[in-house]
Specification:
Length: 113
């Protein structure tokens, strides 16, 4: 599969997971803003280039990119003002948020063949 196809699958799995834990804020890939698609693509590339990286490294890579793009920690996700509640060290994230990094990593490794 191509990088963008893997990113799309990972995005849709993340959306389904979020809905399962009561978070209905995620849009489908087709309706996702470009910045969100680019973030998923960068995550796929990260895992393709670093196959031994764990979920914590995935989160750290995501967080580094967000901070470079001007995002800051905020109690709720606010794309207009670039606030995100997951801009925290991996070990400080709630388990349901850590699970997203495990899922994302596994999707990439399962589909990158």
């Amino acid at each position: 599969m191509k990088v963008e196809q893997i990113a799309q699958v990972a995005h849709e799995i993340n959306k389904a997971y979020c809905e399962a834990i009561g978070d209905n804020s995620q849009t489908s890939w087709d309706d996702a803003p470009q910045w969100q698609k680019e973030s998923a693509v960068l995550g796929v590339i990260f895992h393709m280039e670093n196959p031994d990286a764990g979920p914590d490294a995935s989160h750290n890579s995501w967080m580094k990119q967000k901070i470079e793009d001007g995002w800051k920690y905020g109690p709720t996700k606010d794309p207009d003002n670039k606030y995100h509640p997951c801009i925290l060290p991996f070990e400080m994230l709630p388990n349901e948020q850590k699970a997203k990094d495990y899922l994302f990593r596994q999707v990439v490794h399962s589909l990158n063949k």
